[in-house]
Write a structure and sequence with these properties.
The chain is of the alpha/beta class and 149 residues long. Helix content is 49%, strand content 15%.
């Protein structure tokens, strides 16, 4: 009797983890609805996120996913988790040193919260997000992080 119960609990945990439609650009990015912390990451992590190689890798991953979607069906009808993941990758590649959280709905609405370093980066969020197939609407709740003294 113990084995079926353990199995069902394990399936429930896997299902719960698979249904999470939130993606983050960094581990330290805030949870949805959580207060946004100041940008504080190590120099090595910043250099990796800002490297041209990393940017090319992320953009290649996005193109590969979009090609798979074209082969399997409608490229504009996308799962929320796929949208969130692709938008997060796009923002991570093109807005270095940001701490952003991306939420998506199955209807194509993407909400981006967190912090960026400057106003130019904040202005890039919506156009970069709309480059992903299936994104119909972008809600930007991100703010510019206050400079450290």
């Amino acid at each position: 009797m113990k084995t079926p119960t353990s199995f069902l609990i394990g399936l429930l945990l896997i299902f719960t983890a698979a249904c999470d439609n939130t993606s983050k650009t960094t581990v330290t990015a805030p949870e949805a609805g959580e207060a946004t912390p100041a940008a504080d990451t190590t120099q090595a992590a910043k250099e990796d996120a800002q490297s041209e190689l990393r940017r090319r890798q992320l953009n290649a991953d996005i193109r590969a996913r979009e090609e798979r979607n074209l082969a399997t069906g409608d490229r504009t009808n996308r799962a929320a988790a796929d949208l969130a993941s692709e938008v997060r990758s796009k923002l991570e590649a093109n807005i270095p040193a940001s701490q952003l959280t991306v939420n998506a709905t199955d209807e194509g609405t993407v909400t981006v919260s967190g912090t960026v370093s400057n106003q130019d980066q904040l202005a890039k969020i919506e156009p970069l997000s709309k480059e992903i197939n299936g994104v119909k609407n972008v809600i930007v709740k991100a703010t510019v992080a206050s400079p450290k003294s």
